[in-house]
Amino acid sequence: QVQLVQSGAEVRKPGASVKVSCMASGYSFTSYSLNWVRQAPGQGLEWMGLITPSIPATTYAQKFQGRVTVTRDTSTSTVYMELSSLRSEDTAVYFCARKTLVQGNAFDYWGQGTLVTVSS
Amino acid sequence: DIQMTQSPPSLSASVGDRVTITCRASQSISSFLNWYQRRPGKAPKLLIFAASSLQSGVPSRFSGGGSGTDFTLTITSLQPEDFATYYCQQGYNNPPTFGPGTKVDI
How many CA atoms lie within 13 A of B74 on its CB side? Predict the structure, then answer.
């Protein structure tokens, strides 16, 4: 069965960076794009970017351009999201999510989420 | 970016009730509209894709409709496990954007 397993919770100080991993299993890793979506406390869901593992190619939300980097390791079917210059507003749960190949461009499988806390 | 709005922001309902949530896009998105359920502490779960297609494994009491800019999610005969927050999301173009959510509670 399809699974996306993320790394554990992180605490960082303002100005630092964090790198979250997402290991995929149960499907062909290079056939689907993997996306990163976050949810800050009391806020909605916010798309950050994606990687197409086969190429690889990345696309980022304008809001995060220059601060986010998404990479992949095909040998371990793992995608990484690194966010730099952290500020308190980056405190959120970060999810990886697979995008479907069918109409709608939905996210059909999600990781369990990784809480990133930014605090001095 | 395409802006998504939802109404109502929250609603109170009882087990067995029929509930309808509305989602509106700031421009036409054809049928590129998806619905998710999020329970506290859990990842979002895809319920409906392409406006009206039921995701595999999702109970048939969930249904979606609409096209263009106006969409609905209907839950017939609400069950205890359906008390959650529901989000719509457009997949028409990048960046994908989500509605602010509708919280369904008792």
Answer: 12
Per-residue pLDDT reduced to its tens digit, A19-41: 999 999 999 999 999 999 999 99
Q: Does B67 touch chain A (CB under 8 A)?
A: no
CB atoms B49 and A47 under 8 Å: no
> Over the stretch A1-10, which tens digit does the pLDDT of each residue have?
999 999 999 9
Environment class of A75 (CB within 10 Å of its CB; exposed 0-12, middle 13-18, buried 19+): exposed
Question: Using CA atoms, how far apart are residues A108 and B46, in angstroms rounded to an integer?
Answer: 6
- Calculate the average pLDDT of chain B: 96
**Which B-chain residues 73-92 have CB contacts (< 8 A) with chain A?**
87, 89, 91-92
Q: How far apart, in whole angstroms, are the C-alpha atoms of residue A83 and residue A18?
A: 5
* Residue among A53, A99, A43, A54 at smallest CA distance from A78: A53
Q: Are B92 and B2 in contact (CB under 8 A)?
A: yes
For residue B44, whether the previous peptide bond is cis, meaning omega lies within 30 degrees of 0, is: no
β-strands A34-39, A92-99: how paired? antiparallel
Q: Rounded distance, CA A19 to CA B56, Å?
A: 32
Q: Are strands B70-75 and B97-98 parallel, antiparallel or unpaired?
A: unpaired
